Amino acid sequence: MSTRTLFSTALVFVLLVGCTTNDPNRRAKTGAAIGAVAGAVLGHQLDGDSGKFVGAAVGAITGGVVGNYMDQQEQDFEQALAAEQQQNAIEIERMRDDTLKLSLDSEVSFDFDRSEIKPPFHPSLDKLSNVLLKYDRTVVHVVGHTDSIGSEQYNQRLSQQRAESVGNYLLSSGVPANRLRTEGRGELEPRDSNNTEAGRQLNRRVEIYVKPVIDGQESKAYEPPRYY
User: What are the structural domains of the chain?
Assistant: First the structure.
């Protein structure tokens, strides 16, 4: 599904990053992307039924310290993305199962009807990536959503493409592929009514779910996040 797409498009990102001569972090990003793709392809196999990477090198957290681990990660997200929260560009929420959900406002991150990330939003994703790299005992699910304007098929495709754009950016920033999952849910999980422009704006979003890998319950981190 989406993870296989992530692998193939990651190779394109490696070439693009390598060709961007005015990026001061060009060599570091290129190396990180190459390492992520090579490590995932050569070192792991994807279980088609569960969607879990067999033998994935994602460390597990002992159950008794999960809350503290996610508390610290949430605090780092809050500090790193304080400006984005003030601008309503990113929302951070703690779920009942200790998953962290970051909602990206598509009006800030994408042009209308496009799946390419706006360049001014790159620094925000860089900050987000830095926190994900620090707390590496998690699986990161990137989920795209749209409003109901247009056909359901079109909205599904656009939501998938936007999720993959964010996932590929995180990959190029060094987040390993074996920690990344992407999917699109189209118009199926609205936050608000699609009958108003304000509601439709809320429904157009990309959500990043950061799920802890708990010792003895590793498979749960790879399960698609539920919408609450």
Answer: 2-221 (3.30.1330.60)
Residue 110 · residue 122 · CB < 8 Å: no
Question: Which three-class secondary structure state does DSSP give residue 111?
Answer: coil
Distance CA 177, CA 36 (A): 6
Q: How far is CA 228 from the centre of its chain?
A: 18
Confidence (pLDDT) at 227:
72
Q: Side chain identity at 157, as an amino acid letter?
A: R
pTM above 0.85, yes or no: no
Q: Which residue has the tokens 């998938």?
A: 160
- Measured on CA atoms in the order 16, 126, 165, 201, is the torsion positive or negative? negative
- CA 85 vs CA 101, 115, 123, 169, 220: distances in Å: 13, 22, 14, 20, 29
Q: How far is it, in rounded angstroms, from Cα 72 to Cα 82?
A: 15
